[in-house]
């Protein structure tokens, strides 16, 4: 097999960038909700409940609210790949909490 063409090299660079992007997004997506969404209380087991319609701090930070919405959409799109689950409330799907998965 010979040397890579410029097009093949560019494709490999793009695939590497995409792979790195997924790793970074997977590792930070939960914290985007935990940091930016308002805490609406806690469950009996101590898990915080986040209101994804409101920000943790008052202010017109539209970008921060978008960050929360993008994080929720990303978690939904990635599916069951995380070592935790985002749980929504049936009667209030904008309220979420996180549960760590049991090992095994």
Task: Explain this structure.
The chain is an alpha+beta fold and 104 residues long. It has a domain at 31-100. It contains 2 helices and 4 strands; from the N terminus they run αββαββ. The protein has helices spanning 6-36, 62-78, and strands at 37-42, 48-55, 84-89, 92-100. Strands 1-2-4-3 form a 4-stranded antiparallel beta sheet, with helices on one face. α1 packs across α2 (62-78). The longest helix is centred in the N-terminal third of the chain and has 31 residues, at 6-36. The chain is elongated, with a radius of gyration of 18 Å. The mean pLDDT is 91.
Mean residue pLDDT = 91
What count of helical segments does DSSP give?
Answer: 2
Low-confidence stretches: none
Largest sheet: 4 strands, antiparallel
Strand content: 25-35%
Counting helices, strands and paired strands, the structural category is: alpha+beta
Strands side by side in the biggest sheet: 1-2-4-3
Using the alpha-carbon principal axes, give the shape: elongated
The rounded distance between the terminal residues' Cα atoms is: 42 Å
What is the strand tally?
4
Helix share bin:
40-55%
Task: Summarize the helices and strands and which ones pair or pack.
Blueprint (H helix, E strand, L loop, with lengths): L5 H31 E6 L5 E8 L6 H17 L5 E6 L2 E9 L4
Antiparallel strand pairs: 1-2, 2-4, 3-4
Keywords summarizing the entry:
104 residues; alpha+beta; 2 helices
């Amino acid at each position: 097999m010979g040397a890579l063409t410029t097009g093949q090299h560019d494709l490999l660079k793009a695939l590497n960038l995409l792979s790195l992007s997924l790793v970074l997004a997977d590792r930070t997506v939960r914290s985007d909700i935990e940091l930016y969404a308002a805490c609406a209380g806690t469950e009996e087991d101590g898990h915080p409940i986040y209101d994804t319609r409101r920000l943790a701090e008052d202010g017109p930070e539209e970008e921060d609210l978008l960050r929360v919405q993008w994080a929720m959409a990303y978690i939904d799109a990635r599916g069951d790949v995380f070592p935790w689950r985002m749980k929504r409330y049936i009667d209030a799907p904008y309220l979420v909490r996180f549960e760590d998965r049991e090992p095994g």
